[in-house]
Amino acid sequence: MIRPAGSGAPETDGGRMKRRMWAALAVLPLVAVGACGNGGSGGSTSGSSSKVFDVVFVSGLSGPLEPVAGPMAAAFKASAADLNANGGILGRKIKIETLDGHGDPTKSVNVLQKRISSGDKPDLIYAGVASAEVLAMLPVAARAGIPSVASGSSNDINDIKAYPLHRNIIPSAASQMLGLTKYVGDRSVKKLVVLAPQDAQGDGIVAAAKKLLASSGVDIVNQRYSTTDVDVSVAWEKAAAAHPDAIYTDCLGDPCGRLLQGRLKAGITNIPTLGGTSLGGSGNGPASFAPAAALKNLDMIVFGAQVKQATETASMNAFLTGFKKQYGKITSTVAPASSWDGLRMYAMAAKKANSTDPAKMVEAISAGLDAPSDYFLLSTDLKFPADKTMQVPPVDTFKIIPATSTISDGQYEVSGN
Amino acid sequence: MTTAIISGLATGSIYALIAIGYNITYLSAGALNFAQANLVVLGAFLTAWCYQHGWAAYAIYPAVGVAVAVIAMLEERLAIRPLRNRGSHSELVTTLGAATIITGTIIVIWGSDPIEVTSFGANSPFSILGGRAQPIDFILMGCAVGVAALLVLLVRRTSFGIATLAQSEDADAASLRGIDVRRLSLYGFGLAGLLAGLMSPIVGNKTYAVASVSLLLAVKGFVALTFGGLGSIEGALIGGLCIGVIESLAARYVGADYRDIALFLVFAATLLVRPQGLFGKPHLRPV
């Protein structure tokens, strides 16, 4: 069983019995008062004796992270409203409190620490949307013994010894490249150039590609570009000089326009190219910022939730309606969907464990929630290996779509390439 | 190699245009405007906005040019003039403050995602001398050379230019000779802003309208300025082009890891031999 960090030395049976008796006597008056009010309740909490399920959402609600964190906070509230309309968590209404860390890891830690020290401990913490703030806040949550969920993708989050009560709703960067295997197999690729940014994200991409394709016999050529390059055509030209059957690349935000412009200028749009999930999640999709000619023979891996379906699931419809009500518009789906799923994951865990005890909820998640296939938006099911905090999603979580696809109401409408 | 050289010259032309902007305010106001790159990026966003709202190209260039010039003059009044004659170099901090405000405003209004600046109808790539290029590459090179030539003429052949040279040598002496250094400073910032605004649709076509690129351009523009020699328009042009080509060739033939290392090795070696830069004049200091 997973216990909060610092849960203490083992107790004897006698000691435990005495402690339970005193606890029962102390709680009796509270039970009497509680019986007069709201009846339903779950098990023990991580410190709160209130009837509400307190959740704290901390991220950069102002500053550079706001375009991502704002919609995610709105989706989180929408998720709470939806769950509350269906009875809350084991009868406890969910109360969301948002704290602004301004996108600064130090400030995020400060506001979270202040909140934890100020009174009742929250029952759950949403510990940020960017890896830097997530990694700063997770030790605070772990020390306080409060379960947490977050959307960072750094592999450093995947440390169950350091963060036993954390479960990350966004899969690791490596897991997000699962579609590469299928792409390479479908095209009988013998030689693949991985054109990755010259930074930590790029290191992760290259390592993941090598691991994923280790047994496939594909020759992988590591080629880098600088995210500060004004003209990336030189990197593409160098990639083409290796005569690959296909190229895998990725970028996040700012450099994406210049990356695709470089592909066009280098004149290698005839080489099949696959973009990663970051490319598909940048801006309003590549078609919104790159010339159409640069998108020829370019596909990209996206979360299934990003692709518009003829008939959406009930969960997706509830999400779209609730999110639009909270935020006024639908910007993108994948990041808000992750915060929507994050709260539902713990709601389902509490239901399965029949308790809101942190360790029991986390244990239920690790054991497998066996939720209906349309319960979550990003994955058909959430699977967490026993020794990991990050989920390993089923392959069908991702889809490969042409980069010419356009976004409408936050979702891709697939169009040919 | 042709692609790398053309790409380097085009990118270097952008660095040169930023460095030339630094020189204009240095000569006319005695201050380096560290917000010059931010003004160019602001102009790129204004251009994208104008295109999105159906403005014709002939109206966009002058409108953006004037708008950015006005903002630059406002910057001079708020960030430079109050510090005049105080004897410190506080303008290094206040122009950085102006740069931060401009970038912050851009992010608040337009966000941090890249926006395409389609300031030309067709920018289709083509093959040339065994390499690849786009029309924008040659337009950027032409603009950098043309602007540098015009400014050299302006500085050497007009009373405004001669006044800026006098001001840069000794502002007090220039003032005693009847030169209105305050007005010169304001006009200098206006001219640098006008240059930033007029060039921003062209620069934005290459870089995209994206807030984060301003820091990169500011740093590389400053390196080009120091490499070419502070106060020299020709030096800014040659410095920018050299830096662009060194970067591009290093990325192509050594590796992306070594691009900046190669650049700063050449930069450091040059400054060891000529501390005043390629075209700068050594300043004598009384001891």
Structure description:
- The complex is a heterodimer of chains A (417) and B (287).
- With 417 residues, chain A is of the alpha/beta class.
- Chain A is 39% helix and 15% strand.
- The longest helix of chain A is centred in the N-terminal third of the chain and has 24 residues, at 13-36.
- The radius of gyration of chain A is 23 Å and the shape is globular.
- With 287 residues, chain B is mainly alpha-helical.
- Chain B has a two-stranded antiparallel sheet with strand order 1-2.
- The termini of chain B are far apart.
- The interface between A and B is medium-sized, with 33 and 36 residues.
- In the predicted model, the low-confidence regions of chain B spanning at least 5 consecutive residues are none
- The share of residues in extended strands of chain A comes to 5-15%
**Measured on Cα atoms, how large is the radius of gyration of chain A?**
23 Å
The low-pLDDT segments of chain A are 1-49
Largest Cβ-defined interface: A-B, 33 and 36 residues
Spatially, the strands of the biggest sheet of chain A line up as 7-6-8-9-10-11
What is the spatial order of strands in the main beta sheet of chain B?
1-2
Based on Cα principal axes, name the global outline of chain B. globular
Give the rounded overall mean pLDDT of chain A.
Answer: 83
The succession of helices and strands of chain B, N to C, reads HHHHEEHHHHHHH
Q: Which overall shape of chain A is indicated by the principal axes computed on the Cα atoms?
A: globular
Tell me the major beta sheet of chain A: 6 strands, mixed
Rg for CA atoms of chain B: 19 Å
The oligomeric state is heterodimer
The residue-averaged pLDDT of chain B reads 86
Q: What is the share of helical residues of chain A?
A: 25-40%
User: What is the number of helices of chain B?
Assistant: 11
Number of helices of chain A: 12
- Biggest pleated-sheet summary of chain B: 2 strands, antiparallel
